[in-house]
Amino acid sequence: MLRSTVALGVLAIVHLGCGGTSSAPPPKPAAALVEAAPVTAPEPVAAPTPEEARSLPDACVDGPMCTFPSEFAERLCSSAHPEVALHLFAPKTPWKRAYLQRSFQAWHVGGRGELRELRSGEEVIIVSAPKGQSGGMQIGGQGFDVLRWDGTCVSLMEDELSFRKPPAAVPANIPFKKLDRSFQTAFSQEKQIEMLRASEQRTCEAPGAEKEPGKSKCELARRQLSLAIAQVVAKGKALPELSYVP
Question: Which of 82, 112, 129, 211 is in Cβ range 3.0-4.6 Å of 65 for a Cys bridge?
Answer without folding.
Answer: 129
